[in-house]
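Board notes (copied after class):
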Amino acid sequence: MGILSDRKILKTILLRIFPMFKNFIVLTLLLSLEASFAKQSLHNTANIKCELDDKDTLVIGCTNKCGRWNSWALKRYARKLGYDIDIINLRSENQTVDYTQVDGILIPGGSDVNPDHYIPLQSPQTKSRLQSLRHFYSPSDIGEDRDKFEFGLLKDYFANESSRYQPILGICRGLQVLAVSQGIPLYLDIEEELGIKNRRYTLDRVQVNNPESLIRELAGRSSFRAVKYHHQGIRLDHFLENQDRWPNLDITGTSHNGKLAEVMEFYDRPILGVQYHPEWTFFSKMRRGVFSWFLKRSCFNKIMGKKIYEKRQLSLTRNH
């Protein structure tokens, strides 16, 4: 809980320095510092220890059926952390669960993302190129349903200040949905566009690009192997050419000599997206690191996230 103690110390110091302004300057400074605290909390996971009360249960919500291996990994590492855990489907035939009622959100792999969600936002040249490749998109009913639900959820999530401590783990399609939600387009077919064979239960080497990144800490090394299954991916060249548009996120892992994006990290919220499948990558420190991070951040959100938000809102109310 080092992050919380740092924030408390700063607030105490600022209150003593500026008592005559009734916290206005304090709040202004704290708000500007919170982004750096969020980034620090995202990366210094080793310093975050979160324990649940005996009667508490961690609730993880998946935006589709979580799948056998994701469920297995979540339960396995929850047990190692001493957590009781419930895994629920946020979107089922009978009902839709409010995402704010769960402690962490997992967006699992699955069907193609409809390019209509990103083609209209691009420049005329990029739009024309993507339209010419549209036939590589494989439409499906489940894909359309997931698109509607997941993009709606993410739109609300990013607009909801009270969700800023709620972690999201995006796997394969989940990474792509996260990218598209930020206006980043996809390769419609990596074999056609990049000359890289579509990945079918392929073991690829992921290279970590940033030694200070979260994935470097979780994997414990500068490169690692991971199992992959996909034919689309983040349009990395577009991201790199326009990177200043996304100051709060970064591509921190790639493969195939930097052609394919493998890891995306957000600095203002606890969000991690991976193109590969950690749940299928057995005997890997990376797999343990990714799922343990997600569970610890979910625990942190359950215990402290809402309290921090409520205190922040109360302080703002008192100064209006």
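Comment from the instructor: The domain at 55-318 is CATH 3.40.50.880 (Rossmann fold). The first helix runs from residue 2 to 17.
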